[in-house]
Amino acid sequence: MGSTMPIWIEAGLWGLLGGAALVLGALTAWFLRVPDGVVAGVMAFGSGVLISAVAFDLMEEAVETGGLTATALGFLGGAVVYLAANALLARRGAQHRKRSGGQQPSESEQGGSGAAIAVGALLDGIPESVVLGVGLLGGGAVSVPVLAAVFISNVPEGLSSAAGMKRSGRSAGYVFGVWGGIAVLSGLAALIGYLALGSAPPEVIAVITAVAAGAILTMIADTMIPEAFEETRVWTGLITTVGFLVAFAIDRL
Hints:
This protein is mainly alpha-helical and about 250 residues long. It is globular, with a radius of gyration of 17 Å. The longest helix is centred in the N-terminal third of the chain and has 31 residues, at about 35-65. Helix 1 (about 5-30) packs antiparallel against helix 4 (about 115-135), helix 2 (about 35-65) packs antiparallel against helix 7 (about 200-230) and helix 3 (about 70-95) runs antiparallel to helix 4. It contains eight helices and no strands. About 80% of the residues lie in helices and about 0% in strands.
């Protein structure tokens, strides 16, 4: 991305790229029959990559700038907010939104579940996108490990969820409307994150990074790892560990 481009547009494009991985996953699921074990394996790997990004990019950076207390409060706050929003959406039929089997309710089984699943998918993606935009503040560059983590974890998420949507009788218009919309909103979240926090003190940015990190870690534990475990069983821990190690190595190199 050339230096002639305004940074806020660049932030939006990075967010869009992260969100585009969801569309890529959904397209794959719609046209190909990907074995559940493969989806689950990639999801476990993506979980490990994301955990590494949370620990070594987001939290480390937040602590250095904002101190431990503010970072800890933000981190816990992000977890609680995600948990509350997730619980609310689960009541409306979105608790199995990442599931590829027949666990997702159809609209006839639970009215409004389609909207809840879409909002849930958005809830999972927004913290990641904000982090991508915030990374460009102060002349910074987008964090390659974080971008890789978002992309690698979003592909199986879109894949698994879209397969579940297809199985519960959702139309192509609904499926691609949801994921295309979320990709665009991911870009907007990154762009708004950059613009809204452009003049914010570093401590505020640190806390917001920690909030996003808390939400991401909760999402991994609540939805990604359980979904992966359904299929990969005893291998889940090992695959997640390999994902973590690969991301950690990339970060250090």
